[in-house]
Automatic annotation (TrEMBL):
This is Arginine--tRNA ligase. Residues 462-578 form the DALR anticodon binding domain. GO terms for biological process: arginyl-tRNA aminoacylation. CDD domains: Anticodon_Ia_Arg (cd07956), ArgRS_core (cd00671).
Amino acid sequence: MSDPQKVLTARVQAALGHAFGEPDADPAIRPSQFADFQANVALALAKKLGRKPRDIAAELVERLDVADVCEKVEISGPGFVNLTLRNEWIAGRAQLMHGDERLSVEPTATPQTTIVEYSSPNVAKEMHVGHLRTTIVGDAIARVLEFLGHNVVRDNHLGDWGTQYGMLIEHLLDVGEDSDEGMLLETDPNAFYQSARARYDTEEEFAVRARRRLVSLQAGDPETMRHWQRLVDLSKVYLHTVYGRLGVTLTDDDIRGESFYNDMLGATADELAADGIATISDGALCVFPPGFTGRDGGPLPVIIRKSDGGYNYSTSDLATIRYRVDKLTVDRMIYVVGSQQSLHFQMLFAVARMAGWLPDGVRAEHAQIGNVLGSDGKIFRTRSGKSIKLTELLDEAVERAGAAFDDVPHEEPFDEVARREVVEAVGIGAVKYADLSVARDSEYVFDFDRMISFRGNTGPYLQYATARIRSIFRKGGLAPEDAIGPIAIGHDAERALALHLLGFGSALETAGEAAEPHRLCAYLFDLASAYTTFYENCPVLKAPDEDTRASRLALCALTLRTLSKGLELLGVTTPERM
Ligand code: ARG
């Protein structure tokens, strides 16, 4: 265990056990202004035991065995216990972290089978900026939880079923899949959708065929199913391209779209009706989960089966929950989906719990994703009002990254191929990091200039920080792996950097537990800042003596590894040279 906060927690808990028979009390270890940490437990415990907080603190300190870890233990104020770590302890832990493949992040003792459902675009419709954000945030959540040792099941809940398929299939059959129009499915699915839609709205004969096709599809007609499958497959080609360019870890095996649950909808509806949970209202089969009311104050329904016999989005999601709980035996489900669907998920989980399909031990969370806004404060769109094509957006990011890149000084010139590679990584990294660094449920304004800046909490800044560290090693004629220390602490800036490095595991755990990648971003940004202070105050290659130089190089190498690992878990690549 390297994390000081955890080490101190365990030590204080042991003392609480000995002194008061309260080994499970929360020691409430927090970073402190006056020391490294403070334990605030005495205040809460005093209340519980009916004693004075200062007395509790004194007894606690008496029993506290931290001589190896802390240089100073002091009681302050009404009963805070201030804890100052020993430099040797910090250095020793940093050294262990540096020698460890996993950077001292121990795999969790309680691995959970966790579904991370993300991306989930609709077939034959281009992903828009909203889908981009759920894709990027979801991928980071999956990566972090996996690294922490959970059994992560990635799930791309593709919107691949619904009434528009009659129209889309018929259009594909008319134009042919090898035609320019058919090829759009692989390059610009939105355009394909829009021309199918335009024909549906204007050509009566086409509309009649499209409706007939939908009936065949719903009846499972084999010929029609084949065409539908073709349509879905062509759309997958498009997704491959986008995921590939973004470095998103979703594969075809992770796709379990809405169509997958189609056969289970009937039974799901029937069971709800049989159990008396769903009732007929205005001809539709509905559940009214308690606590949800409409604008008129009346109870709000979840519609399970419409009066025409068709099933709903909610029915499909209920079947999905049953499948995941029964067949995949999940412990936790994280739905990374836009915050507009918040009510849908609240009601969905309520109904699933009523039906007994979502046992108490299973966590179901809607990890809400806030809108990405244009500079006008409205949902990000082009001037013509259409949502922006994702590929064009990424191209523009890369182009602008190129301009910014040419503006910063480089040690050595780049040839065109190398430049293009770095600029692609910077442009894509900038867009991804912008999505990740803002609390995921907050809206934010999409602003190329800000996200591509080499200053502030941005992707390029952190990428640049890793490249700068690598350049120290190049100048020193040494590989980072060869910088083995030993780490020792002399300067305050070395101490602050090493202490921050030790918090990597906790930052990951917090991000994983809350499914909030922005917490990891904040940690990495603070780490880069601590490194900058260190670098400005502590010469590395020109250190005053060999031991100091070896120690500082090891701190540089450990910072590099931690930043790189953190960025990797966010899905942001780090060019070797910038
Ligand atoms: N396909 C949906 C959309 O684009 C998102 C699916 C969300 N997931 C779910 N289980 N309902 O809006």
